[in-house]
Specification:
single chain; alpha/beta; 10 helices; 10 strands; 39% helix; binds nicotinamide-adenine-dinucleotide
Length: 276
């Protein structure tokens, strides 16, 4: 496993396992498979409604709690200082743990304009030792700049949509300039057309790897923290087998060149105000 050291000296495994869209009833089995495979970093959220299954799998794995890096996220309808503190307590309850490794504001929800106040709650949670690191997700450069101006603590990470069809070079630059780590969500483009790209197939053939493994290697090369999701045991294992080959810099550039401004799959955070 490779690690990225966040600005607060917390070490995060660069490859993690994402559990969006895995129902709570299946999360236990899926996370158990991931932990048996060797993953030591799990990415959930209160909105995924599977924190209970994730937490139970960690507790029953026999692994010491400190060996597993757990991220969860604060949902959009829970912004605000007191509300965020309460929502965090509920996440800890569901996870069955007394701290998380990383707590993120899931979306900035600009229309609500509460993310600065919410960030103060995360700062309090970190100061109390209940989150080892705190960060954000889906923050635009503008949101980040405001947080840096008005907050006391710099976010350790910004988790954003990032894959070869949407490689986000300017956000990665912005993060680098401010010492904020970049974490890629939907790193495989949600398993859509991307994985049929001839370039990825060709590189996969060259290295004896699948297109998904080539994409994950591209993320590792760029320095992204990456959290692919699969509920299929063979793919959970396949996505972990990416530490025994390396792409050449020119190949990394060719993959990045697949991207375009229109390559976004998920919502645009600048206008995403859903709180339901
Ligand atoms: P992903 O890019 O990880 O793609 C997952 C899909 O790709 C799977 O459902 C499967 O269909 C396919 N797949 C996975 N492994 C494969 C393989 N080896 N070969 C072929 N196909 C394969 O998509 P995702 O789930 O959207 O993103 C990953 C994680 O990112 C989520 O589980 C979640 O933890 C996080 N996420 C966060 C946000 C956010 O707003 N912060 C949004 C979306 C996702």
């Amino acid at each position: 496993m490779q690690y990225i050291t966040l600005h607060d000296d917390v070490r995060i495994p660069q490859l993690g396992y994402g559990v969006w869209q895995i129902p709570d009833t299946q999360a236990y089995d899926a996370v158990t498979t991931a932990l048996e495979t060797g993953y030591r970093h799990l990415d959930t959220a209160s909105a995924y409604e599977n924190e209970s299954g994730v937490g139970r799998a960690v507790r029953e794995s026999g692994l010491p709690r400190e060996d597993v890096f757990i991220t969860t996220k604060l949902w959009n309808g829970d912004h605000g200082y007191d509300t965020a503190l309460r929502a965090f307590d509920q996440s800890l309850d569901r996870l069955g743990t007394d701290y998380v490794d990383l707590y993120l504001i899931h979306w900035p929800v600009p229309e609500q304009d509460l993310y600065i106040e919410t960030w103060r709650a995360l700062e309090k949670i970190a100061a109390d030792g209940r989150a080892r690191a705190i960060g954000v997700s889906n923050f635009t450069a503008e949101n980040l700049d405001r947080l840096l101006r008005e907050g006391t603590t710099r976010p350790a990470i910004n988790q954003i949509e990032l894959h070869p069809y949407f490689p986000q070079p300017s956000m990665r630059d912005h993060h680098r300039r401010h010492g904020i780590a970049t974490e890629a969500w939907s790193p495989l483009g949600q398993g859509g057309d991307l994985l049929s790209e001839p370039l990825l197939k060709r590189l996969g053939d060259k290295y004896g790897k699948s297109p998904a493994q080539v994409v994950l290697r591209w993320h590792l090369h760029l320095g992204n923290v990456v959290i692919p999701k699969s509920a299929t045991p063979s793919r959970i294992r396949e996505n972990f087998e990416v530490f025994d080959f390396e792409l050449e810099p020119a190949e990394v550039e060719q993959i990045t060149a697949l991207g375009s401004d229109g390559g976004r799959i998920g919502p645009n955070p600048a206008v995403f105000n859903y709180v339901g």
